[in-house]
Amino acid sequence: MFTGIIEELGVMKKINKQGNTLKLTIQGQKILKDVNLGDSIAINGVCLTVTDFTDKLFEVDVMPETFKSTSLSSLKEGSLVNLERAMAANGRFGGHFVTGHVDGVGQIVKKTPKENAIYIEIAVPENFEHWTLLKGSIAIDGTSLTIFGLEDNHVTVSIIPHTAQETVLGMKKAGDIVNIEFDMIAKYLHRFFIKGDTSNQPKKGVTGDFLRENGFM
């Protein structure tokens, strides 16, 4: 479990590609202070397992499903990546619930400076539109953000100068691919209340209709 608050930018030092698998060697500093074998680290929002490490580098393996469904396959040696350690149980919770299980990739449509902010419009896969909500949470390359613009399959988020400087989002441009993880609560609600009941039995208790009628959906 992660928060979407990026801890540091890592540097991709080595990429070993074999078929649809990758072994990545990444340089970091802050995240390596208390690292152990088997720890989870989110790399551009993708939860991966530490398989080896030194005081400056760590390695992770990317399996075929992750290779195909995330942007990790497009990384190059020298690329900067967002890094976040799994959330500590005794830590401050500053973002939103992020699992590191990326739902798919989106494409940046445009970036627009707006006073002290940068608006980023992103096209997300059409089959995931139902998981987007105005003022709802979304993780983009692992960064916890809030949707403030929504039209068809396009979402718009805003980042402050600090986020632009401390994450890869500040460096990306129109046309670039980003990893998208939609809000976990939205996904569970859709599964349980919209798709979960396929019987013809009368619905009791909290249902999708109940939530809609009372302004929750």
UniProtKB/TrEMBL annotation:
Matching InterPro entries: ATP_synth_asu-like_sf, Lumazine-bd, Lumazine-bd_dom, Riboflavin_synthase-like_b-brl
Top-level enzyme category: transferase
Catalyses which reaction(s): 2 6,7-dimethyl-8-(1-D-ribityl)lumazine + H(+) = 5-amino-6-(D-ribitylamino)uracil + riboflavin
Phosphoprotein as UniProt keyword: no
UniProt keywords, alphabetically: Repeat, Riboflavin biosynthesis, Transferase
Annotated ranges, domain Lumazine-binding: 1-96, 97-193
Record Pfam families: Lum_binding
Keyword Transferase: yes
Record SUPFAM superfamilies: Riboflavin synthase domain-like
Domain of life: Bacteria
Pathway(s) where this gene product acts: Cofactor biosynthesis; riboflavin biosynthesis; riboflavin from 2-hydroxy-3-oxobutyl phosphate and 5-amino-6-(D-ribitylamino)uracil: step 2/2
GO molecular function: riboflavin synthase activity
Lumazine-binding repeats: from-to residues: 1-96, 97-193
Known EC number: 2.5.1.9
Function: Catalyzes the dismutation of two molecules of 6,7-dimethyl-8-ribityllumazine, resulting in the formation of riboflavin and 5-amino-6-(D-ribitylamino)uracil.
Record protein name field: Riboflavin synthase
Organism of derivation: Robertmurraya mangrovi
Gene label: ribE
